Amino acid sequence: MAFSAHAADSALQNVGQSQKPADQVAQCIAKTWADKSQQQVTSQYELANGLAMAVYAPGQQPPNGAAAVVRPANAANAKTWVGFRGGDASSAGDINACL
Hints:
Elements: E1 12-18, H1 22-37, E2 43-47, E3 52-56, E4 67-72, E5 80-85, H2 91-96
Antiparallel strand pairs: 1-5, 2-3, 3-4, 4-5
């Protein structure tokens, strides 16, 4: 039986999967949030080569702030899995627009 690393994190809400590379999805989320809020958005690599990233919601800071979490997908039909931790559910719509 296989368990995904992100499924084990109970604080993460599943948002969806994408065929786009993780860095492209993360950049889209960061730009969307920055444009909407007119605030700085922090992105942080979690794996080398842009394979996994955390994009912190406007006004949030690493390591514990609300963030979109972009990681390699465990599914054959997707490149990237995206979750959201510690924030308000309206942010999921912004994330979905980037998938």
